[in-house]
Structure formats: structure tokens, C-alpha cells
Amino acid sequence: MQKAAQPILATENVTMQFGPFVALNNVSASFESNKLTAIIGPNGAGKSTFFNLVSGAFAPTLGRIRFQGRDITGMAQHEFARMGIAKSFQITNVFKLLSAHENVRVAAQMRRTRFELLRPRADLKDLIDQADALLHRVGLTGLRDKRAGDLAHGQQRCLEIAMALACEPQLLLLDEPTAGMSPEETLAMMDLITSLAEERTVILVEHKMKLVMGICQRLVVLHHGEVLAEGTPDDIRTNDEVKRVYLGQSI
Length: 251
What we know:
Elements: E1 9-18, E2 21-31, E3 36-40, H1 47-54, E4 62-67, E5 70-71, H2 77-83, E6 85-88, H3 100-112, H4 125-137, H5 153-165, E7 171-175, H6 183-196, E8 201-205, H7 209-213, E9 218-223, E10 226-231, H8 233-237, H9 240-245
Parallel strand pairs: 3-8, 3-9, 6-7, 7-8
Antiparallel strand pairs: 1-2, 1-4, 4-5, 9-10
Helix pairs in contact: 3-4, 3-5, 4-5
């Protein structure tokens, strides 16, 4: 009998409390390598808290987090990035006064030469080339020299993903990547996410259930801080408990 592949990321009985409030309660979930998975659920389900835990923003009150079998619970956030976990936040987080290219180059430079930030720009040709390639990857080549603060909202989200990709991650975490986007921007972002998932493991936190149903291979549904259901999109569509939680919505 063939042994099951080790998940790239797993949480084991994770609980997160803020004072008396329990945001997550005994959550166990595993995520396979090279698959696109969504964490979904109604507002207040615990999605953002889960994202913060698995991206290293804070440690769980109880339980363990494992990356490629290694216990990473409580490690510093920069250690998560160094191991190959990159993230994009719900609120755009770019250097607005720098150009799009400079944003990505700085992110790449921090990955490779953390202690040489004042190194002459001419000596960083490989980083310049990498930044150009990543801008092309997310569709921003024509906006290379535009100041990040002058980009449209959807373009800023794409820029932030390019910055995350500069860390050369094995696991890319996206927190509500389509938040605040127009329908056209949303469709473009979902196409980008789908293509990125062909190259690495992607986990996105999203509340737009219908959006992720068509592109994700697996979904984990949270409700009141607990795992309500998990499985393929078809599994979730036919789950009676999920239907009850999303009463009145088409899934």
C-alpha cells in the first residue's frame, strides 16, 4: 500500500483565544502540496485568525502548526518567510512612494542580501532582472516605473503578490485577494491565482464562496471558529451543514 504524501502544511488541534473570546477552537486541517485550497466561511468564522496563525503573525494558544513535517509553532514571522512561506494581506501593503519595480526589487533584495541594502544599484542586475520577470508574471510590465501609490487597487494587489513571489515561496498565502475589487479586477485576479497554483501550493482565505468553487481543488469551511466541513467543491456543495450556514446563497 502506497504511503500518503506528507502535507505541506498542517494544523493540529489549534485553538486561539483573545482573553475570554475563542476565535478558533480545536482546528485540525492539512493542506497538500501543489494544490489550490480555499479557507471559506461567513464573516466572523475565524478565517483571518487562521491566516494569521499559519503565516506566523502570532502563535496559537494551544495546538501545533507543521510545515513540511517540521513543528514551526511559535517561530518568529521572518522565519516563516525564510522557510518558504509568503503571504499577501487583505489590506494592500506596498511602499506607495516607490515605483512598482522598486517595490519588487527591494523585496527580492531583502530575500538575498538582507545586510547589503546600501549596495550600489548597478551591482544588483540579477535582482533587477528578477523584479522585471515578476512584474511580467503578474501583468504589470507596462507599469514598471509608475509609483505604487498611483496604481489602481487591483494593480496594487498584483504588485503585492509579485513582492511575495520575490521570496521564492513554496507556499503562498493570500488573504481575501479580491477584497474591494471590481468584477473585472476580480476575474483577472482569479486567473492569476489559478496560474500561480500551477507552480506552487496556494492557500487563499476568502468569503466569496462562489468565486472559489470554480477554481479550487479543495475547500475548508470554518464556522464559529471550528471546521464545519472540508473536501472537494462537489463535497461542499452537497454538504447539508454548509447549506444551512449559507442559507439563501447559491453554492
